[in-house]
Amino acid sequence: MIRRLLCLCLLACATLTEAGGRLPAQKTESASAAAPAQQNGSGLDLRLPLESDSIRFAVIGDTGTGDREQSEVAHLLETYRKAVKYEFVIMLGDNIYGGHHAADFHAKFEEPYKPLLDAGVKFYASLGNHDDPNEERLYKPFNMGGERYYSFKKGDVEFFVLDSNYMEPAQLRWVEQALQKSKAKWKISYFHHPLYNDGVSHGPDLDLRSQLTPLFEKYCVNVVFSGHEHVYERLQPEHSIQYFILGNSAKLMTHDFHASPQMEKGFDTDRAFMVVEVSHDKFYFQVISRAGQTIDSGSETLPVCSASAP
Amino acid sequence: MLNRPSSALRYWREKYPRIAALLLVGAVAFSSTLALPQTATNQPAKPDDDKVVQDFENRVAHYLEERRKEAGTSPKATSSPEKLDEAQQTLAQKSKAARAEAEHGDVFTPEITAYFRRQIKSALAGRQGAKVRASLRRAEPVQDVPLRVNQVYPNKVPLQSMPPSLLQKLPPLPKEMQYRLVGRNLLLLDGAPKIIVDFIPNAIP
């Protein structure tokens, strides 16, 4: 009898833990299942299908150092722009490290990305803890519309850009309303502080996670990008949400990971950036290191999800 | 009828009294753990709290009105970093000059300070409080900022991130104003000129 009682208790505990824990619900297709690698004329390794009416963009995070590594990644971004023809870049915060005088904006943004800016590529910034919210939100090339948090739409994709440094109740209300009224097929959110990650330096922000994940799950957010941790990491999807961390487009924290079963792919030995293509029900991604090597690629299929009624 | 234990419970109590007692203690402990965050975060407001919060909001509104009148509003969006830089510095200088007599405690009076300390303490209590503390530890804590009222926050020092659960416990601010932390001290910051309006020392217990 006692043995049966103990078994029941263990079963109940396991059920509670499972319900409160993470529930992987979706699998990312590996590189081999995604678009096959293509070599174009310049010998560039391309893993995106480059379909005719797709949305294409690049992702960078923790960039604003003004150092050689930032310039080298920026150079490769321009090389990939010519091949991928992405139209815009999303920035995951820490866009300008250190001072925020005019010279900093020149050296840490305008000069490294001059070829992209000259080609008409738009940048959509989110704010990191090293950014000055009051200057950067007013800096037109960051396309923030004068706000710390905002949304914008490209085709079937709507982006919800949050200020994770200062997630006050007004911002939480705004994001809930914006997600609720969105009719976009793909909902992508990005902000600086990761909700999940396996970096030793910072780790996940549990308080932020407890505020945002219920909204993301309720309103069917598909993909979340964050920076802050100076590595690249792709995690197992959580409740059909794919989480990426890309905080090493200029800064780098080498050998920063601890072993974790939630990590699908990690890269912490060099800088990197990502190119993304969204085409109908497919989300393709390719992560490229500063040395030009593809360190991760794959695709996601739009999961079935119906937003809860308000 | 309501006080009468069910037959199953009575059976357990009679047949296995020690196990039944252990289960009862476990159930009480588990339910009290679940209840902890609720009691920590939903403390009923004291009758005077509304007045204190109203006093705080009035002081913030008065500060902002004076700053707008004497120094102007937030700069306009521009593509020129030089113009941004210049506008920010001009606004900061004018804001400082307009409030040259400002003193520590102008906004955070002893009553308001006591209210904030209670709110912060409750935000740091319970299971959610542990997440807030973890969030603070991982937010790259900022230390080296001289705490002086009406001084400009240093250009090169990052602003420490604020945990959302902590912000939920503090009175809402106008869009231009923010709460920020420097070490364990809570700052009231006017964002556009980056002026420290007032602060509470050792606000984080």
The helix fraction of chain A, in percent, is 25-40%
Strand portion of chain B: 5-15%
In whole angstroms, the N-to-C terminal distance of chain B is: 49 Å
The whole-angstrom Rg of chain A is: 20 Å
Q: Whole-number radius of gyration of chain B?
A: 24 Å
Please tell me what the overall shape of chain B is.
Answer: globular
Largest interface: A-B, 44 and 40 residues
CATH topology of chain A: Purple Acid Phosphatase, chain A, domain 2
The tally of helices of chain B reads 7
Largest sheet of chain B: 3 strands, antiparallel
Strand content of chain A: 15-25%
Q: What's the β-strand tally of chain A?
A: 15
Low-confidence stretches of chain A: 5-25
Number of domains of chain B: 2
Topology (elements, then pairings):
The complex is a heterodimer of chains A (310) and B (205).
Chain A: H1 2-20, E1 38-39, E2 45-46, E3 55-60, H2 68-84, E4 88-91, H3 102-110, H4 114-118, E5 122-125, H5 133-136, E6 150-154, E7 157-161, H6 169-181, E8 186-190, H7 206-218, E9 223-226, E10 232-235, E11 242-246, E12 263-267, E13 272-279, E14 282-289, E15 294-301
Parallel strand pairs in A: 3-4, 4-5, 7-8, 8-9, 9-11
Antiparallel strand pairs in A: 1-2, 3-13, 6-7, 10-11, 10-12, 13-14, 14-15
Helix pairs in contact in A: 6-7
Chain B: H1 7-15, H2 17-41, H3 49-71, H4 81-98, H5 110-123, H6 126-137, H7 164-169, E1 177-182, E2 185-190, E3 195-200
Antiparallel strand pairs in B: 1-2, 2-3
In short:
The complex is a heterodimer of chains A (310) and B (205). With 310 residues, chain A is α/β, with parallel strands linked by helices.
Descriptive notes:
The complex is a heterodimer of chains A (310) and B (205). By secondary structure, chain A is α/β, with parallel strands linked by helices. Chain A has a single domain (26-301), classed as 4-Layer Sandwich (Purple Acid Phosphatase, chain A, domain 2). Chain A contains seven helices and 15 strands. The radius of gyration of chain A is 20 Å and the shape is globular. The N and C termini of chain A lie far apart (47 Å). Chain B is mainly alpha-helical and 205 residues long. Chain B is built from seven helices and three strands, in the order αααααααβββ. Chain B has helices at 7-15, 17-41, 49-71, 81-98, 110-123, 126-137, 164-169, and strands at residues 177-182, 185-190, 195-200. A three-stranded antiparallel sheet of chain B has the order 1-2-3. The two termini of chain B are 49 Å apart.
